[in-house]
Amino acid sequence: MTETGQVVEDKAGWLPCPACASERGQPQGIGQAMVVLLCAAGCMMWIPVIGWVTIPFLLLAMLVLPFLGTIPFKCGACKHVWWAAKPTRAS
């Protein structure tokens, strides 16, 4: 992380894991999170009232997710998942 708080990755595309400090943190892609939210919305339609109220929020989250400026990372060593700012390439 730089002095301005911007996350910097190395040329291989990894970030160190905040849980175990392993150097095996890999970006997961935003598409996986969007699919999970879509599946959750599909399951909620079968739950009366509470599920029906929840569906618009899940769909809204799915549409807003790509514009948040963060992406999910997963550690290859401890399987910890965390969200970090979109990294910039180190020069």
What gyration radius follows from the Cα positions, in whole Å? Answer: 16 Å
Task: Write down the secondary-structure element order.
Answer: EEHHEEE
| Secondary structure: number of strands | 5
Shape: elongated
Helices and strands: which structural class? Answer: alpha+beta
Q: Can you summarize the main beta sheet?
A: 3 strands, antiparallel
Any idea how many domains? 1
Biggest sheet, spatial arrangement of strands? 2-3-4
- Number of helices in the DSSP assignment: 2
Fraction of residues in H or I helices: 25-40%
The residue-averaged pLDDT reads 80
Gap between N and C termini:
14 Å
β-strand amount: 15-25%
Low-confidence stretches: 1-6
What does this entry show, briefly?
This protein has 2 helices and 5 strands, in the order E-E-H-H-E-E-E. By secondary structure, the chain is of the alpha+beta class. It has one domain (25-89).
Task: Describe what you observe in this structure.
- The protein is of the alpha+beta class and 91 residues long.
- It has one domain.
- 33% of the residues lie in helices and 20% in strands.
- The chain has 2 helices and 5 strands; from the N terminus they run E-E-H-H-E-E-E.
- The strands form 2 sheets. Strands 2-3-4 form a 3-stranded antiparallel sheet, with no helix packed on it.
- Strand 3 and strand 4 form a beta hairpin.
- Helix 1 packs antiparallel against helix 2.
- The N terminus is likely disordered.
